User: Fold this.
Amino acid sequence: MNRVGRIFMSWWRWLIRLGFRLLYNELAWMYDVVSWLVSLGDWRAWQMAALPYVRGKRVLELGHGPGHVLLALVQQGYEVVGLDLSVYMGRMAWQRLQRAKRPFLLVRGRAQALPFADEMFDTVLATFPTPYIVEPETITAVSRVLRPGGRLVIVPEGHFIHSGLIVRFLEWLYRITGQRAGAFAIDAEGDLGVWQQYVPIFQKAGFTLSKHVVKFTRTAVTVLVAQKRDLPSDVPLVQ
Assistant:
């Protein structure tokens, strides 16, 4: 790549980072609309696909955003704690959960340095997190706050099953904004695929990683389950 190309790519990456920063902060009020549009209306269903994989009573959600998943967890009777770095998302989630009139706790902080006691949670959950979720510091911190046999549940990506002009446009948007980890095999239940590269990070922190596929009418979503060793799991694991 020549000098002009490098300058353009550097500028483009900066612009993408700025756009996401604004969406998670000053423009957080647009988050639900944008996520609905880029998922053809399935964003909420993609998020809720994580709930059947939650185990235990105490749940921590990393990057809770506007609070939809937190609200669903509270309504199902879980003891929930939400953590997010964005003050704007924190306000939105607080307002949403206040209306539910159920106990909850929201904390502002970073996943790489979780401000919680050891073995405090049964499940840690993250839906559509940024790349921080596979950083060694994050995985180590999550392992510390999970009880033996606890699990980290991640929803990293959703995909479209059917093609068409709108889908091709959305896939193009995902690619140019760096939101595609790689090729997606709809029927590859259990095949880690592009996520195989992160297995050593999870193993070092005491996890065994598995991948699951949840299908909807027009889309499908990936669910990763990182099971902390020491107790058996009822979810089939891939080494």
Q: What stands out?
A: The domain at 3-228 is CATH 3.40.50.150 (Rossmann fold). The first helix runs from residue 3 to 24. The chain has one domain: 3-228. Confidence is low (pLDDT under 50) at residues 182-187, 232-239.
